[in-house]
Amino acid sequence: MKKKTRATAAGTAKRPKTGPAGPKAAPRGIRKSASPPPAPSVDPKSTIRRLKTQLARARARIEELQASADTDFLLDIPNRRGFERELHRAIAFIKRYHASGALIVLDVDRLKPINDAFGHAAGDEVLKAIVKTLLAHVRASDVIGRLGGDEFALLLWNLSETDARAKAALLEGAIDRLTFVFGGRTVTAGASAGVTILGLHAELGRALEEADSAMYIRKAQRRHEA
Question: Which residues are catalytic?
Answer without folding.
Answer: 150
